[in-house]
Inverse folding.
């Protein structure tokens, strides 16, 4: 369980409040958020991770491969890791040594951690939430607000699959308007979204595969 004394409240007026939230969300930026774990991870470049829950089988292994390679390169990923496949990706990330940022769609005060998260929580897993302690249950509205929070914090976004007419696709289109880079897989190749891949293989698709 994450105890109250393990959670820091980061207020908008504090020096530790990420300016990226204000830049992306403006007046909709949360006045405060809750954090448990190494807050200094927020000083590193981050890649947001989103994926529609019904991901085609042809993309699953490619996504796992890309996540593994990103982990081995030390990239810091941030996401809600809610769907089954996203949770599997979190497990892959936790087997590395790099920091990981998890943002559940509920309050983190008093939240029970699954056993596989506890070792990383001791040093490199940062858990964030823009929701107050009263929000103890995940809802679709909280999940949507959480995804906007993740999209605002991340420096770029990795989306292996966004289903047509999905909330994931709508969020990606919203993020694209801000000029933030969105990276995706294709069925034909596993391109790891790094500057090396972009320069050697040409432009990476800017619209998520549907």
């Amino acid at each position: 369980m994450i105890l109250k004394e393990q959670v820091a409240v980061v207020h908008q007026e504090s020096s530790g409040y990420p300016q990226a939230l204000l830049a992306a969300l403006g007046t909709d930026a949360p006045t405060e958020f809750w954090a448990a774990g190494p807050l200094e991870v927020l000083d590193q470049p981050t890649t947001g991770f989103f994926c529609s829950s019904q991901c085609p089988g042809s993309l699953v292994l490619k996504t796992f491969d890309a996540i593994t390679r990103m982990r081995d390169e030390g990239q810091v990923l941030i996401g809600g890791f809610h769907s089954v496949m996203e949770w599997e990706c979190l497990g892959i990330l936790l087997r590395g040594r790099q920091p990981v940022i998890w943002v559940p769609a509920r309050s983190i005060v008093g939240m029970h951690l699954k056993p596989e998260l506890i070792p990383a929580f001791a040093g490199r897993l940062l858990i964030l939430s823009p929701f107050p302690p009263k929000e103890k249950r995940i809802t679709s509205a909280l999940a949507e607000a959480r995804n906007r929070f993740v999209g605002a914090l991340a420096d770029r976004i990795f989306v292996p699959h966004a289903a047509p007419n999905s909330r994931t696709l709508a969020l990606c289109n919203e993020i694209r308007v801000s000029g933030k880079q969105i990276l995706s897989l294709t069925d034909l190749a596993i391109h790891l979204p790094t500057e090396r891949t972009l320069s050697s293989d040409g432009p990476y698709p800017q619209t998520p595969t549907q």
